[in-house]
Specification:
A hairpin with a 2-residue loop joins strand 3 and strand 4. The protein contains four helices and four strands. It is 42% helix and 31% strand. With 71 residues, the chain is an alpha+beta fold.
């Protein structure tokens, strides 16, 4: 869970893609995630853009929460 918390640190950034809006946003940086063990499970690339797959992310988060609860 430590790796998960370290990689998923929310950050603010300026979004510049007109199709998805512009301005300040908050989210996770793919660069922080993609080189972790978890990144291989949740980072996808399409049309030259990387993003995290929210469905896979939910599965990873639930697994981590259950593991933490069972400690």
């Amino acid at each position: 869970i430590d790796e998960l918390l370290e990689a998923f640190t929310p950050k603010t950034f300026e979004y510049i893609d007109p199709s998805n809006g512009v301005g300040e946003k908050i989210g996770f940086m793919i660069q922080d995630i993609e080189h972790t063990k978890l990144g291989k499970m949740i980072v996808v690339e399409k049309d030259g853009y990387k993003r995290y797959d929210a469905q896979n992310l939910i599965g990873v988060l639930m697994t981590a929460l259950k593991a933490e609860r069972n400690k």
